[in-house]
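Structure first, sequence second, as always.
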């Protein structure tokens, strides 16, 4: 199938453009990494290209897509990725796989120090066909750093080729994480889901939604599960937990977040969070 062409990314934030480095347009955001934009180096005959950028809190990258698949990894900050099919949250030290041609927008929460691998489609056939948050092993993190550090102004040597091949091999073996929120294909249901994500509340019920949408309870629950793979209750919980991650990462207290979501007390929220993600909120985000 023909891949969608790369489109220029339009940024809703100010960034500084520095003089060309090694004949490439180089951008810098914040005070950290400098790398060329992917559209300036996408033509290079390499199976994988590694780039690094820093993004300020609130930085928004408008909807766009890439010719290559992209594996993102952030050493600090949190990323919220949105596509027409759903929403994903990438905490620090995890990864996000975005298949080639998938239109997506990205929002940074906190100072995000990002390293990305852009992979030729024919070298990513074993990767997920949908966006997916992945566990990044310490070995993979080291490999990503090495690939990002490779010079782009000369032909890749034997070591560079071996490093890229090993990185792609390890990338295919990264375990997935339950940090996605699928949207239904039915436009009315999807619109309601997007509204809920904007103002989540754990107390909204199946009856509330089916009544508002003019559907029987049975039809609503059947269609919702068919189109999302989750029960409404499971989806609602996932939506609340994922909405909590950016707030917690930004420094909001567990108590405040729990109350905003409608939990009776912080303990109830923490129990639900730990049941879903295996650790209490602050420990999961590396804040404790």
């Amino acid at each position: 199938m023909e891949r969608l062409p790369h489109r220029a990314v339009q940024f809703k934030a100010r960034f500084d453009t520095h003089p060309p480095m090694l004949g490439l347009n180089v951008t810098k955001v914040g005070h950290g990494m400098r790398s060329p934009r992917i559209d300036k180096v996408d033509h290079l005959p390499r199976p994988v290209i590694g780039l690094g950028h820093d993004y300020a809190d609130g930085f928004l990258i408008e909807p766009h897509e890439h010719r290559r698949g992209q594996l993102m990894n952030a050493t600090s900050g949190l990323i919220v990725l949105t596509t027409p099919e759903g929403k994903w949250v990438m905490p620090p030290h995890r990864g996000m796989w975005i298949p080639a041609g998938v239109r997506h927008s990205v929002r940074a929460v906190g100072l995000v120090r990002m390293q990305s691998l852009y992979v030729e489609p024919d070298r990513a056939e074993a990767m997920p066909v949908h966006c997916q948050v992945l566990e990044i092993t310490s070995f993979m993190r080291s490999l990503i750093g090495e690939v990002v550090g490779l010079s782009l102004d000369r032909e890749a040597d034997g070591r560079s080729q071996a490093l890229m091949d090993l990185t792609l091999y390890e990338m295919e073996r990264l375990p997935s994480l339950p940090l996605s929120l699928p949207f239904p294909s039915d436009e009315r249901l999807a619109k309601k889901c997007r509204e809920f994500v904007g103002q989540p509340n754990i107390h909204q019920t199946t009856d509330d939604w089916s009544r508002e949408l003019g559907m029987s309870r049975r039809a609503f629950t059947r269609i919702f599960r068919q189109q999302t793979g989750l029960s409404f209750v499971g989806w609602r919980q996932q939506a609340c937990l994922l909405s909590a991650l950016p707030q917690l990462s930004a420094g909001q207290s567990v108590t405040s977040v729990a109350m905003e979501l409608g939990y009776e007390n912080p303990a109830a929220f923490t129990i639900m969070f730990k049941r879903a993600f295996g650790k209490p909120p602050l420990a999961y985000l590396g804040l404790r």
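Margin note: Residues 1-33 have pLDDT under 50 and may be disordered.
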